[in-house]
Amino acid sequence: MASASLSVLVGKNFACIKIAGRANFASSPDFKALLDGLSQKQFRHFIIDLTECLLMDSTFLGVLAGFGMKLNPKGATNERGIELNNASERVADLLENLGTVHLFRLTQGNLKLPDDVKTCTPETINPSHEQIARTSLEAHETLMAMNPENVARFKDVTQFLSEDLRNIEKSS
Fold first, then answer.
1. Cβ atoms within 10 A of the Cβ of 34, count?
2. Could you report the per-residue pLDDT of 77-136, keeping only the tens digit for each?
3. CB 14 within 8 Å of CB 49
4. Residue 129 placed within a domain
């Protein structure tokens, strides 16, 4: 399955990540590595441009929500936060239904970026089956920890992923 392409612009106080295509489990390890790398470089305000994001699955959202919790442990959106720009109605519904919308500031319209932004080329890690399974498991565990209603939604998924990881670890 084709996954999202990620492009990055950085400025003095922020990073803008454009997601085009399908934001799914396959692109989640790269997205997680990108967010962690930008955070390590002391970026604290993130704009996620979802204008060309066709869909977002629960794994990708779990990675995003986990990062939102790490950035703002108390869940308050402020200058240290994540702005989701031009989320489709489908993505906005997913944020609401899974109990993660409070972690983000939702905006609509054209982005107004300063002139001094620079393009960054995100590294791709070409994730292994194990990395994808581990990222997916962590993302779903995050969603279940955030909202008790998600436990019923994802308990079978997390059980499957846990078993898959055990089998991968046994065979390596």
1. 22
2. 555 589 999 999 999 999 999 999 999 999 999 988 878 889 888 888 889 999 999 999
3. no
4. no
The tally of domains found in the chain comes to 1
Which CATH number covers residue 15?
3.30.750.24
Give pTM, 2 decimals.
Answer: 0.92
Tell me, yes or no, whether 150 lies in a domain: no
Domain that holds residue 15: 5-124
Q: Is residue 164 part of a domain?
A: no
Residue 161 has φ and ψ, to the nearest 5°, of: -65, -40
Q: Which of 72-76, 112-116, 157-161 has the highest mean pLDDT?
A: 157-161
Structural domain contains residue 10: yes
Burial class (CB in 10 A: 0-12, 13-18, 19+), 79: exposed
Burial group, residue 92, by CB count within 10 angstroms (0-12, 13-18, 19+): middle
Give me the sign of the Cα torsion angle 80, 103, 31, 49. negative
